[in-house]
């Protein structure tokens, strides 16, 4: 199968790459080649979903090295430390980064979620306070959305916050909070209007994690790692002015965050997906599994599906808002594709894949973690409801 074409061949965006884009791609490629060396040479391919525990401190140092060289927050305005990079150049960076097999970033929640949200909805004081820490990777963030009784139904959250003098007092529980155990701050969706329901009366609060009112309990996953956490708030505190947008209007802000959750970096994600698929194809060739017509057909289907992911991402990249439900469509596409890839890996491994020694191999780990792909970040059911109700105009699902 052919490889995904990259920026210099003109497919990282619409209309083909100009000479400036080609030069930018070379700059990124050469910088990565020069800098993924020495103390950072052993980080290639480490980290990512299900593997966030791998060389965390070293990857944090790498992120700060990137920041010092100006390779973080490329699309942000220059006044906030970015480069005002075009969508095309942001795509080029993420693709070249993935092609170099550079380590997964530890600061992605701050850079890809919190940062764009503050740029869109935050006050100037909030931007000045928090964006430098994101840009320089001196403050790490986590996302306080899901709850045990709400799951992917964000409007059903029950974590409550009330003003107490010049502070918010927060009580409740969040779950599946990625990297909460290493985060300095959490953006929390909490109910701030008593008696409110669904999407009304919610607020988007910025909460420091290092305080007596917060307890973080790691969740051991099927893979044996524990990047997800339960977070308990018991009269946790944050300043009254650390609410993004107006109090009670947090639903709009939270939806803005979700709309960028699978943004430009998805093109880099797809390069990593392609690397996984190529490795599975090589495994099938070595083991002879590709002689099975059913497995050969599944490999071909995966190759075609990856092209569909890319076509959708490029077609919708840089669109403002999500009126067409593109974020939900994109999430459904990549999550189901990647889950199927994990199943394909196990089919290629055959009966041997059912046996685990002291540790899981890469294919067993891929299979187990991809079972969660269709759940975290908004489950398949929630994404389909969004498309049905907000895009197709179908009747709303009955809710308690």
UniProtKB/TrEMBL annotation:
SUPFAM superfamilies: Acyl-CoA dehydrogenase C-terminal domain-like, Acyl-CoA dehydrogenase NM domain-like. Gene3D superfamilies: Acyl-CoA dehydrogenase/oxidase, N-terminal domain (1.10.540.10), Butyryl-CoA Dehydrogenase, subunit A, domain 2 (2.40.110.10), Butyryl-CoA Dehydrogenase, subunit A, domain 3 (1.20.140.10). Residues 1-11 have a biased composition (Low complexity). Residues 1-20 are annotated as: Disordered. Pfam families: Acyl-CoA_dh_1 (PF00441), Acyl-CoA_dh_M (PF02770), Acyl-CoA_dh_N (PF02771). Residues 142-235 form the Acyl-CoA oxidase/dehydrogenase middle domain. Residues 24-134 form the Acyl-CoA dehydrogenase/oxidase N-terminal domain. The lineage of its organism: Bacteria, Bacillati, Actinomycetota, Actinomycetes, Mycobacteriales. Belongs to the acyl-CoA dehydrogenase family. This is Acyl-CoA dehydrogenase family protein. Keywords: FAD, Flavoprotein, Oxidoreductase. It comes from the Bacteria. The keyword Oxidoreductase applies.
């Amino acid at each position: 199968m052919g490889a995904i074409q990259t920026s210099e061949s003109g497919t990282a965006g619409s209309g083909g790459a100009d000479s400036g884009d080609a030069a930018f791609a070379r700059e990124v490629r050469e910088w990565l080649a020069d800098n993924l060396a020495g103390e950072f040479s052993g980080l290639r391919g480490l980290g990512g979903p299900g593997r966030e525990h791998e060389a965390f401190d070293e990857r944090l140092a790498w992120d700060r090295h990137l920041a010092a060289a100006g390779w973080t927050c490329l699309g942000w305005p220059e006044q906030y430390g970015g480069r005002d990079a075009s969508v095309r150049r942001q795509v080029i960076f993420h693709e070249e980064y993935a092609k170099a097999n550079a380590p997964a970033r530890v600061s992605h929640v701050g850079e890809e979620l919190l940062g764009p949200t503050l740029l869109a909805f935050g006050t100037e004081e909030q931007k000045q306070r928090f964006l430098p820490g994101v840009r320089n990777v001196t403050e790490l963030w986590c996302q306080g959305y899901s709850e045990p009784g709400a799951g992917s139904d964000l409007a059903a959250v029950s974590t409550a916050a009330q003003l107490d003098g010049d502070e918010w007092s927060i009580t409740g529980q969040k779950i599946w909070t990625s990297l909460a155990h290493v985060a300095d701050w959490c953006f929390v969706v909490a109910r701030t209007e008593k008696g409110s329901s669904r999407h009304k009366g919610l607020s988007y609060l910025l909460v420091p994690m290092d305080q007596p009112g917060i307890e973080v309990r790691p969740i051991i996953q099927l893979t044996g790692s524990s990047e997800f956490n339960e977070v308990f708030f018991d009269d946790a505190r944050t300043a009254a002015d650390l609410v993004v947008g107006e109090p009670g209007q947090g639903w709009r802000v939270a939806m803005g965050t979700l709309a960028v959750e699978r943004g430009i970096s998805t093109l880099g994600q797809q390069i990593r997906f392609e690397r996984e698929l190529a490795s599975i194809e090589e495994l099938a060739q070595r083991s002879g599994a590709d002689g099975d017509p059913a497995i050969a057909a599944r490999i071909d289907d995966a190759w075609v599906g990856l092209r569909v992911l890319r076509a959708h991402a490029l077609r919708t990249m840089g669109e403002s808002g999500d009126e067409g439900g593109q974020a939900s469509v994109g999430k459904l596409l990549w999550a189901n594709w990647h889950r199927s890839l994990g199943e394909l890996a196990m089919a290629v491994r055959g009966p041997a894949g059912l046996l685990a020694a002291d540790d899981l191999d890469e294919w067993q780990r891929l299979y187990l973690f991809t079972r969660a792909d269709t759940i975290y970040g908004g489950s398949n059911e929630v994404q389909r409801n969004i498309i049905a109700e907000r895009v197709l105009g179908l009747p709303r699902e009955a809710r308690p």
